[in-house]
Design brief:
This protein is an alpha+beta fold. The chain has three helices and two strands. The chain has a two-stranded parallel sheet with strand order 1-2.
Length: about 70
């Protein structure tokens, strides 16, 4: 974990994302050590509920791209 934190600091990473299927605690801990801010939840392997932002593969892809682009503005 120390190596990851060191690399993120060296590369000036400012944003992090959490996958919808993972426990976000480790990501948040690393972020707190590096000063990175949350960019949102991504759906790389699983869809959201039917009424969620990534109910289909196409919707998931669009959601992920939109979430990443929003952090680049």
């Amino acid at each position: 974990m120390a190596a990851i934190i060191k690399q993120l600091k060296a590369e000036h990473i400012k944003t992090y994302f959490v996958e919808n299927q993972t426990d976000p605690r480790l990501v948040k801990q690393i972020a707190s050590e590096t000063g990175a801010q949350p960019g949102g939840e991504l759906y790389p392997e699983a869809l959201s509920a039917a009424n969620g932002p990534a109910a289909t593969y196409v919707a998931a892809f669009k959601h992920n791209v939109d979430a990443m682009l929003a952090t680049m503005k």
